[in-house]
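can u do me a favor
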């Protein structure tokens, strides 16, 4: 095989690009236009310029961090221990798990609510038994994760194609309703900066696919064997994912923001409903009211898979670090993790608590630290990553990380 054939983008890379896209586009995308658009049109333009490079550079740095291990096939929890020592390894693994696990709980709860709402409102049937419904849905999702990687990637691909198509179709459908009145409303510099500061974390988490980056990087290493080749393909795939997210998600956001006034976006936020539910009510359109639950179902399911990979890695890493058992049977470990997730997700889905959003926001600063700050610190301190020093992208990622973390912490208080 020639060098150009080895480095060429291929089907394997495309499947991972779609998988990472699916991880990022969770149910959050349905609330993104409400959160990102309420500041008006011009802050959104600046966000669109920033979010592409911000997403790509941060995730590429995290992938390079995973690939920097001297032991091929190491996951993020092992790489952290190798570079920062056992104590830091345990601490970061614990934080990594507690940043991703609550999001998994939210998705287990969210998919139960989505299907229940669809049965009641769209099909006009009585609400099914919540415990049985949740058990069927969560067991089905976890069963996919117990299959091999190729099947999991294929199922994600089948979910992501309709998701991309529906987002694009809805964005185009709204074009005749666009109003450009908001273009005349120029914000003051103070309101522009405060809007950007508060909204950057929303964009970071709506485009975040860091829970799947460790598994993705290991998969690249397994596929391409050579370190440089794995790194090259990882960068190309991450660039593909960032481009997909920028084009499809931001087009959808712009289309919604140009269709609705800031007052309507504020009303949607007050009503605590997704943008699709609000649009369906506004236009009295049965198609949108049917597409809303479908998009939510596809988005939650595809995102669940990516977050499951990260949560499982964190849980298994914690088990290995606490017991010190490095020779553990990974298949048994996978099944043990699956049982733990099934029981906890099912329990939370039955209880249906309202505090889940708060737990997710508490995980926000940890995810931003692991995604933005840790790889930048590693570039400065770790010999294996010294070759990435002196790049402007490092400064950009560090600044964006600090902004995101400070805004999330400010939002909590």
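np, heres the sequence
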């Amino acid at each position: 095989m020639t060098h150009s054939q080895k480095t060429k983008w291929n089907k394997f890379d495309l499947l991972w690009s779609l998988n990472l896209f699916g991880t990022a586009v969770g149910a959050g995308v349905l609330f993104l236009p409400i959160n990102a658009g309420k500041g008006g049109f011009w802050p959104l333009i600046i966000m669109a310029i920033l979010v592409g490079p911000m997403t790509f550079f941060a995730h590429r740095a995290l992938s390079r961090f995973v690939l920097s291990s001297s032991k091929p096939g190491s996951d993020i929890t092992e790489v952290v221990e190798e570079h920062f020592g056992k104590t830091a390894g345990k601490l970061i693994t614990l934080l990594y798990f507690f940043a991703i696990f609550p999001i998994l709980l939210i998705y287990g709860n969210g998919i139960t609510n989505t299907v229940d709402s669809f049965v009641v409102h769209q099909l006009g049937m009585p609400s099914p038994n919540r415990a049985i419904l949740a058990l069927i849905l969560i067991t089905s999702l976890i069963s996919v994760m117990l299959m091999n990687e190729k099947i999991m990637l294929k199922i994600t691909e089948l979910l992501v194609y309709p998701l991309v198509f529906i987002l694009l179709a809805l964005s185009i459908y709204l074009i005749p309703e666009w109003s450009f009145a908001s273009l005349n409303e120029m914000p003051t510099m103070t309101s522009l900066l405060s809007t950007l500061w508060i909204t950057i974390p929303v964009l970071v988490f709506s485009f975040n696919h860091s829970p799947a980056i460790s598994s993705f990087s290991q998969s690249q290493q397994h596929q391409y064997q050579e370190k440089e080749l794995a790194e090259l393909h990882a960068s190309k795939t991450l660039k593909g994912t960032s481009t997909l997210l920028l084009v499809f998600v931001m087009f959808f956001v712009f289309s919604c923001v140009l269709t609705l006034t800031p007052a309507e976006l504020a009303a949607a936020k007050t009503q605590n409903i997704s943008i699709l539910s609000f649009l369906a009510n506004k236009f009295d359109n049965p198609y949108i009211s049917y597409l809303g639950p479908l998009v939510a179902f596809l988005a939650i399911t595809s995102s669940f898979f990516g977050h499951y990979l990260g949560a499982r890695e964190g849980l298994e890493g914690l088990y290995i670090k606490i017991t010190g058992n490095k020779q553990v049977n990974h298949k048994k470990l996978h099944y043990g993790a699956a049982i733990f997730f099934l029981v906890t997700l099912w329990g939370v889905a039955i209880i249906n608590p309202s505090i889940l959003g708060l737990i997710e926001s508490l995980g926000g600063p940890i995810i931003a630290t692991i995604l933005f700050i840790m790889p930048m610190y590693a570039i400065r301190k770790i010999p294996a990553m010294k070759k990435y020093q002196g790049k402007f992208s490092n400064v950009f990622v560090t600044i964006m990380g600090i902004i995101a973390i400070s805004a999330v912490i400010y939002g909590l208080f």
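The longest helix spans residues 286-323. hope that helps!!
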